[in-house]
What we know:
Elements: E1 5-8, H1 18-28, H2 37-44, E2 49-56, E3 59-71, E4 74-84, H3 93-108, E5 111-114, H4 121-129
Parallel strand pairs: 4-5
Antiparallel strand pairs: 1-2, 2-3, 3-4
Amino acid sequence: MQEDIRIIEPSSDDKQYVGAIQALLKQLSSTPIEFTEEDYTALAGSSSSRLFLILCDGTVCGMLTLAHYFAPTGRKMWIEDVVVDSAVRGRSLGRRLVEFAIERAQEMGGTLMLTSKPARVAANALYRSAGFEIKETNVYKMNL
């Protein structure tokens, strides 16, 4: 029997996904991230962010966020927090999420960007094969 794989954009009322997102965040970052129902409601209800979940037979097995905003130089979009559950990696689920996000971004038009640590070899290969190019720039961070 073929597995049912779907990508959804959940609504802010779909709080049953909070635990799955929390579990994925533990795989994404070595820094503990507390993701609450309030965080979920803010993210899923945001007008400037779109949360996409990939479901494998109804179970969340990955996620991606597409953020977008306007600047004087045009619409900017960022792919953020891409993670596929380690138990199902190697099945092109990350590729499906990225391609889905690219299609949504193309509908809006503008510039689509993302960052990825060089150590994430498979992820960087995916992004290059999906059409992203390395941009010579520095990314600075300030935790507030």
